[in-house]
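Lab notebook, bench 4. We co-purified these components, and the gel suggests they stay together. Before we commit to crystallization screens, I want a quick structural picture of the whole thing.
Request: model the full complex, all chains together.
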Amino acid sequence: MSDVIKQAIDQEYKYGFVTDIEQDTFPPGLDEGVIRAISAIKEEPEFMLEWRLKSYKQWLKMEEPTWAKVSYPEIDYQAISYYSAPKKKELNSLDEVDPELLETYTKLGIPLEEQKMLSGVAVDAVFDSVSVATTFKSELEKHGVIFCPFSEAVQNHPELIQKYLGSVVPHTDNYFAALNSAVFTDGSFVYIPKGVRCPMELSTYFRINAANTGQFERTLIIADEGSYVSYLEGCTAPMRDENQLHAAVVELVAHKDATIKYSTVQNWYPGDPKTGKGGIYNFVTKRGTCLEENSKISWTQVETGSAITWKYPSCILKGDNSVGEFYSVALTNNFQQADTGTKMVHLGKNTKSTIISKGISAGKGQQTYRGGVKILKNAHNARNYSQCDSMLIGDKCGAHTFPYIDVRNPSAQMEHEASTSSIGEDQLYYCNQRGISTEDAVSLIVNGFCKDVFKELPMEFAVEAQKLMEVSLEGAVG
Amino acid sequence: MLEIKNLHVSINNKKILKGINLAINAGELHAIMGRNGSGKSTLAHVIAGKDGYEIEGDVLFNGESLLDKSPEERALAGIFMSFQYPVVIPGVNNTYFLKAALNAKLKANDQPELDAMDFLALIKEKIKLVEMDESYLSRAVNDGFSGGEKKRNEILQLLTLEPTFAILDETDSGLDIDALKIIANGVNQYRNSERAILAITHYQRLLDYMKPDVVHAMIDGKIVKTGDMSLAHELEEKGYSFLSTKDTN
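Here is the predicted assembly.
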């Protein structure tokens, strides 16, 4: 391995700091009492508590999945604290937010104040488990858009929660989803009413802060008939020695003629570059249902962080003529492992799905693309196009591809393309000889490789994503 | 401009270059002719700064030693090499690549960088000189290009970056006669009294169109004879063996 690669590996995680705010934290451990306590703190209606308990009982019966191509020491679920909140909770405006917390956001490059003024992005910032600030509320309210912390939605819109919660990802879905359903503390809720085009990009920044605190967000987005919403999610986390479990659930529901565009830039702490110790375990269930005809759900993700990523944003194409899309760039460097991909389930007629996956492995990173395309019996004239490309940087990393295709209707049209390439010494030398530095050359080559995905990101994120790739890859080759 | 002093180069303890001395002045075009394996391309790469050689002696560019400099430092100082095998970079737009290269150079010289519009105007002029279709600009660097197209793309880069010293490493190999003329024409447009060229080739064909000032014959890592264009004709006619028998020990 060349010096330049070593330099990249030695680079410290830019966002590795811990905010010193007094936390209101449960002692580690999970039992029915903990779940009741979470529900009580949240002052939840009875149906929520019942749902949580039902999920918990389900979880107890389940086993942690082992099929993913990742390895990590056994997680002790009793060693995790399931609730943590900054102590100061009653906030009416940003002025009341702990200045140190605001400082944290500033370090992360998301100054709320400035963002309110400049970017036109409404931010629902989740600091650990409790949402502390929500902006642009009034503008959204004018259009009838509901964008609020999940716990608030449970209070104010219980009928929507009751109707849609678990309708896409049931509490029985998988081990981590069941756990999330039992213990989730907060997250975001979005409802776009009939015929409304959401006037701004909606955005949430998650940040894990408290040591040994599992973070279990729950996001639910409902786009009613003829509506449109673009939702952005971005993450960073501070440096920690203990692995932090993150098991979020995201559910999307698109009604007739509605479109949901969900974009993620994920940059959680990947662990110590030399040992891989201490990174985030990101075990996420993300799924959307195109419930009725002509609906569309589009996932775009740029995954550069976490020690382990286990994530398959998927689409259930139930409505006729509905469209599902998945655009992904995943980067694994040093000791990172990622098993990621998507599932497209075609139920309706003339349903269409597109999968574009770009995996980049550097250092000792291991990456797996796992994709499932299922065309069911009644899905006449379904179409799928899949393209998954892997790029290897250096000779100690790995890329693996597991595409599953299950077609039960003869009228289906399926296309699958895959490629593996590497950044060669000769390419770098060629760029160098033209006066382009190695770092710029790597970024040029990688961005060229990721182009098809980056162009799907909203403008604000496209630039951020390119920067993130540059930072994550800085000198990854020599 | 370029001065090579008693240059010895080995790869994995195998001696490739065995004492090269060469001085190239501004305005001159030198040609090095030699058989496969004689060390011509090694010389080109040593000047350009490729990694992996054990080097003794020195290579000076405008009086300064190049040997401690990285390939990009040398490039930014004004050295360009047209590759014998231009490298494919999938997904990276040819225009974008060339713009990055030109702007790196402009930046290094404290000159303002070109924006996309200005660069496009420039490149559209340059591409005419090598008679390439504008569609090549939007394709990925050398991706799916034929051998001749790749070589023309190299000359397009030469004409756009306008270095002070250009190495042409077998730029004529694999070209048909029309392409050869286009390449030679491009190179001739690049030439002026402030620039110098080192052209490496097996054959005199390219030299017929470029008219070198000095021709060197290289055998087994040494320059065994230096002359003018007549040496190129002699080599073409008699082959290299007439030199090798009397000049190697």
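The interface with chain B takes residues 421, 424-427, 429-438, 440, 444-445, 447-449, 451 of chain A (CB under 8 Å). Worth comparing against the SEC data before the next meeting. The longest strand of chain A covers residues 280-290.
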